[in-house]
Design a protein that fits this description.
The chain is mostly helical. The protein is built from 7 helices and 3 strands. The chain has a 3-stranded antiparallel beta sheet. Helix 2 crosses helix 5 and helix 3 packs across helix 4. It is elongated. The two termini are 25 Å apart.
């Protein structure tokens, strides 16, 4: 396998191509994540008119029902100011609405519209497809090991820890 340079300012010449079998697992995780993220974002945009962040909001609201802005930001792993723009976009698309809290008129709760519910169900159906991504995860035992690894990475990798891991940023480790 060879990683070809992208034409977006990457300063990798054809001579410096890297054999992916020699790349540390942390860097492979980043590369695989980038490729999957790009492919997934393309599918979300083409099929649903959504970003990954928009999808996260729809799924969180579908799973939990009405939420406050702060609750939803926590569930979607974004800061509240970032969530505002995402919700604005989804509201304009008719997928999410802001509702005044009946108990406290100052508080606003976020909820799915009917179209948002339909979109969330379609996303859940797509995500729940049990078809393996590769020949490796087609083996249930290997899939379980991959799942455990990824869950541990997600659980243990805070923003601070990620910033301290040079290989995740393309630097040489010492």
């Amino acid at each position: 396998y060879r990683l070809a340079p992208n034409n977006q300012g990457a300063n990798i010449s054809a001579v410096e191509l890297v054999n992916l079998h020699d790349v540390p697992i942390g860097r492979l995780l980043v590369l695989a994540g980038q490729r999957a993220y790009q492919r997934w974002n393309k599918l979300l945009a083409e099929r649903f008119g959504l970003t990954n962040s928009g999808m996260s909001v729809l799924l969180a609201l579908h799973g939990r029902g009405e939420l406050t802005h702060g609750e939803l930001a926590l569930l979607c792993f974004v800061k509240p100011p970032t969530l505002t723009g995402i919700v604005d976009t989804l509201e304009k698309a008719g997928l999410v609405e802001r509702r005044r809290d009946g108990a406290d008129r100052r508080a606003v709760r976020l909820a799915l519209t009917l179209d948002g519910t339909v979109a969330a169900r379609s996303l859940i159906s797509l995500i729940s497809n049990p078809r393996p991504l590769t020949s490796v995860d087609a083996d249930p035992a290997k899939a379980q090991v991959i799942r455990e690894f990824l869950l541990e990475v997600i659980a243990k990798m805070t923003d601070t820890e990620a910033a301290e891991v040079p290989i995740l940023h393309g630097e040489e480790s010492s």
